[in-house]
């Protein structure tokens, strides 16, 4: 269950892909069937609105451009994903887009694909080798949240002494990329001397885990004023506990939680935080939205396939979403 939650947590970073693509439609729409290239997508799963929509959109867009396209769902099973990629290699496909369940398990099969001239696109998480990576710099994602939280501390505790504002970090280290984001969160003391990290708690990135962790944290650290959360689900859980009738936090105006990923729940909570009806006061959005993400995946993958790709690593744009700008998104 934990691996599934972490894998889903990586989805937020995909939205950061920017639409800096080139127009390939003219050249690819004229492909003859005999010259048709095959692009395949090895994905975590096709369950859920996001993952099913992603597969459908890529299918529609690549097919419209004249490519043969196929999706294979690993159902969050690393062994199944390896077997599916092995099968694609035997079929002689031209390019494999991989949303890895466990990148460390794919080294051998990816090396085999590249040795056979198949292009590899690592999507959301870096693999051992790739022709193109589409995703986020996770260390910068965590650090951007730390900056946002530091700004909030400076604004709300202008007279506070150095090291007097207690901060907790709800981190995750189940994957190397998760550890990078978590390390970024710890940079908060670099951006405000008023912050003091008093507790770091490992969570499984779910709403329930965030809620339980917040409840336990405040039993032993009742003076914590800020919680930096690995993702938005965790922040949602923290907010649920702090706003509950049983919450020990009475001064909601001087308490804050921050997260990563932007969705309707985050938007609603951040808006409510203006009147202290929520303590979820900000999140990091990766990118500019789904359409831009779909377009970037398609155009960049085609560029990798036809040899016109300019940059091997395509990192997402990061935006701080706060009560001051949330209505713009």
Record keyword descriptors for this entry.
6-stranded mixed β-sheet; 6-stranded parallel β-sheet; single chain; 2 domains; 12 strands; disordered N terminus; 329 residues; Rossmann fold
Task: Kindly summarize this structure in a few lines.
With 329 residues, the chain is an alpha/beta fold. It has helices at residues 2-9, 11-14, 25-28, 49-64, 78-91, 107-115, 138-156, 176-185, 188-191, 207-220, 232-242, 264-272, 290-306, and strands at residues 38-43, 68-73, 95-98, 119-123, 132-135, 165-171, 195-202, 224-229, 256-260, 280-286, 313-315, 318-321.
Protein architecture, described:
The chain has 329 residues and is an alpha/beta fold. It folds into two domains: 17-135 and 288-316, Rossmann fold, CATH 3.40.50; 138-286, 3-Layer(aba) Sandwich (Rossmann fold). It is 42% helix and 20% strand. It contains 13 helices and twelve strands. It has a six-stranded parallel β-sheet with strand order 2-1-3-4-5-11, with helices on both faces. Strand 1, helix 4 and strand 2 form a beta-alpha-beta unit. Helix 5 packs parallel to helix 6 and helix 7 (138-156) runs parallel beside helix 8 (176-185). It is elongated. The chain starts with a helix and ends in an 8-residue tail after the last strand. The model is unreliable at 1-8 and 18-34 (pLDDT under 50).
């Amino acid at each position: 269950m934990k691996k599934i939650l972490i894998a889903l947590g990586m989805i937020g970073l995909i939205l950061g892909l920017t639409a800096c693509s080139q127009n390939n439609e003219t050249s690819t729409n004229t492909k003859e069937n005999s010259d048709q290239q095959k692009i395949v997508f090895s994905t975590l799963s096709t369950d859920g609105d996001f993952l099913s929509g992603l597969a459908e959109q890529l299918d529609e867009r690549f097919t419209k451009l004249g490519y043969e396209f196929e999706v294979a769902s690993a159902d969050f099973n690393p062994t199944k994903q390896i077997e599916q990629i092995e099968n694609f290699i035997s079929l002689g496909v031209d390019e494999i887009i991989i949303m890895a369940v466990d990148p460390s398990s794919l080294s051998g099969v990816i090396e085999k694909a590249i040795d056979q001239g198949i292009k590899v696109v690592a999507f959301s998480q870096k693999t051992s080798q790739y022709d193109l990576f589409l995703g986020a710099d996770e260390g910068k994602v965590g650090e951007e949240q730390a900056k946002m939280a530091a700004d909030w501390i400076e604004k709300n505790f202008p007279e506070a002494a150095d090291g007097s504002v207690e901060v907790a970090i709800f981190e995750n280290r189940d994957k190397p990329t998760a550890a990078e984001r978590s390390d970024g969160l710890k940079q908060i003391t670099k951006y405000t001397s008023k912050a003091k990290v008093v507790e770091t708690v490992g969570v499984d990135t779910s709403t329930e885990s965030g809620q339980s962790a917040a409840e336990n944290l405040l039993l032993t650290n009742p003076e914590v004023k800020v919680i930096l959360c690995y993702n938005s689900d965790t922040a949602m859980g923290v907010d649920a506990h702090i706003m509950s009738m049983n919450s020990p936090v009475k001064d909601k105006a001087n308490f804050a939680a921050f997260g990563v990923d932007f969705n309707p729940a985050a938007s609603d909570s951040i808006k409510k935080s203006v009147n202290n009806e929520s303590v979820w006061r900000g999140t990091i959005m990766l990118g500019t939205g789904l359409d831009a993400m779909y377009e970037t995946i398609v155009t960049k993958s085609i560029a990798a396939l036809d040899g016109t790709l300019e940059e091997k690593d395509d990192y997402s744009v990061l935006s701080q979403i706060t009560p001051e700008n949330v209505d713009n998104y």
